[in-house]
Here is the input.
Amino acid sequence: MSTLMPVWPAGFLPAPKRDGWEGVPFDSRAAFDPEVGPPQFRARVTAEAWQFSGVFPTVDLTERDAFFAFWGEIKAGSLPFLWRDSAYGGAIRKWLFAKDNAYRIAQVAHGFWDIRVAMIRLASTPWWASLIPADRLVAPVAAYDMVRGLYHDGTAQIGASAAISGAPGIIRAHGTRDVRLLTGAGVATVLLSQNMTAGWWPGSPPVGLASITVFEAGALA
Here is the structure.
């Protein structure tokens, strides 16, 4: 079972050069021309996608190879991924490489390169992204949000009756995983290397348990 979405590679630079990291929104307006006066506009959407471009400077060989491996993981830029853009608040958002000039690489010294990218910050982000710990960027393999009534068992978005039994217990087996429990008050508990057989449930769940997020073993260590 793979994670729900690729994430920005840990072995690459976490952020671009701040000077020159620029974004522009896609024009999502509907326009019409009245008989007199300037054009009139109205919004087509409530959230905008933005395209950003900039440089990840002085990348060494190991970092360059990590970027190339990531490019392969996202099928030559065709798959979306999660990334924290530290220049704009650091929130986890869903991104996609731009169609044109997705990246360019130039050697700047022996064993060092600049990598210029063009990426699209998409308007929507998966609901389970809010369950990722604030101190790392790791996508879950499954997520169960009992308060919002949202469930993804790693294969599909499902309903409550297919996600959690009345015992209670998580219906789908996940193997050995790290688990993050979150209460409605925002208190997190991490359980490492849990053997998540079918029907697994935390032995001593915290009061007010709101969500259970399942990660690859070692992701939360």
